[in-house]
Design brief:
Number of strands: 9
Bound molecules: pyridoxal-5'-phosphate
CATH topology of the largest domain: Aspartate Aminotransferase, domain 1
Distance between the termini: 45 Å
Oligomer: single chain
Order of helices and strands: EHEHEHEHHHEHEHEEHEH
Shape: globular
Helix content: 40-55%
Number of domains: 2
Strand order of the largest sheet: 5-6-9-8-7
Largest sheet: 5 strands, mixed
Structural class: alpha/beta
Length: 250
């Protein structure tokens, strides 16, 4: 904290390393110092985590991801007490724009109805795929808040009431070309950015990623961020197994 700190913003689980910030602990620090806490809840979704109940003043949700859930609309939401949201309405919306298009709003409202059902499946399948990846000798590391071995597993258990979300990260014991070769052999999981869609998506963050220095040691050497979709978990596991049989190792 600095004397002029007005707002702390955290993203938990974080993109792309799925690190966990302790929302209740950080809110105490923020409030003891006269600052607000804002939490980007996109990776968890409101089904798994409710930052407001843990002391956050503002919750940010990318509606583009789990809340819409079908990868076909873009939107965002800021939630909090009326006096804070009124400032966004009267200042940010007027000066910066950010009003959602009606068609996107309609798609998102339609998708949001099934959020709890979809999240239950994302949580369950991601846990299965993460546990499977952990057993493979070709896998350098797996990061998923639902694994006992995750550094912040206890904090995640405390604040993510219904599950740990559908995003995980992992790296292979190979180089840049080996990672890309693995992705090119996948047939069910699609090589694309974004997350929270019905289909599983994988993106490679290479060792030349400019933010590597922020990620921590295990992530150096390149890794994947995977958003586990709504396919049967066994199909995803088979897809990974088949790609590992065919990819070009170092
Ligand atoms: C944690 C998080 N918050 C917000 C966003 C922004 O989402 P949008 O695509 O709706 O602008 C992203 C995009 O990847 C994200 O990962």
């Amino acid at each position: 904290m600095k004397t002029n700190t007005r707002l702390i913003h955290v993203e938990t689980p974080s993109n792309p390393t799925v690190k966990i910030s302790d929302i209740a602990a950080i809110s105490e620090i923020a409030h003891a110092n006269g600052a607000l806490l804002s939490v980007d809840n996109t990776f968890a979704s409101p089904y798994n985590q409710r930052p407001y109940e843990l002391g956050a003043d503002l919750t940010i949700e990318s509606l583009t991801k789990y809340i819409n859930g079908h990868g076909d609309a873009m939107g965002g939401a800021a939630l909090g007490k009326k006096e804070l949201i009124d400032q966004i309405r009267s200042q940010a919306m007027v000066n910066l724009g950010g009003a959602i298009s009606p068609f996107n709003a309609w798609l998102i409202m339609r998708g949001a109805v099934t959020l709890p059902l979809r999240m239950r499946q994302h949580n369950e399948s991601a846990q299965k795929v993460a546990a499977f990846l952990q057993t493979l000798p070709q896998v350098r590391f797996v990061a998923y808040p639902g694994l006992y071995g995750h550094k912040n597993h206890e904090t995640a258990q405390r604040q993510m009431q219904n599950g740990f979300g559908g995003v995980l990260a992992f790296g292979l014991n190979t180089d840049h070309d080996g990672h890309n070769s693995f992705v090119s052999k996948l047939r069910v999981i699609t090589n694309a950015v974004s997350l929270g869609h019905d289909e599983s998506l994988i993106v490679f963050l290479g060792e030349n990623d400019e933010r590597q220095y922020l990620y921590g040691d295990e992530f150096r050497g390149g890794f994947f961020r995977v958003s586990i979709g709504l396919e049967d978990a066994e199909d995803l596991i088979s897809d990974i197994k088949n790609a590992l049989l065919a990819y070009k190792t170092v």
